[in-house]
Design goal:
The protein is mostly helical. The chain has 5 helices and no strands. The longest helix is centred in the first third of the chain and has 18 residues. It is elongated, with a radius of gyration of 13 Å.
Amino acid sequence: MSRSETLAAYLRSQARRRLDRVESNDGGRNARGALALLDAAAYADSLPDDDPLISMLDRAGCFGPLGCEDFDPGEAGARLIRGWENGEPHELLLALPTVG
């Protein structure tokens, strides 16, 4: 899989996790978050591996030290993704390297 594909797969898995959460008083927060993550996953899947956003995530170590592993945003990045509710997909990707 390409780096873009592993990023998209990670975001889709986090969207599924948000959809599976049942909280009686969340006011639609989990649904909004899942939709935002699915949007980000579709966006990421459309990016070529030489896109500047993918390169930036690679330099930040999100694809392992050699840039050939599955996407892993680290603990701070995972927290950002878990809490993502709205915003443009590129805003999420731009924010990931800055949260570490």
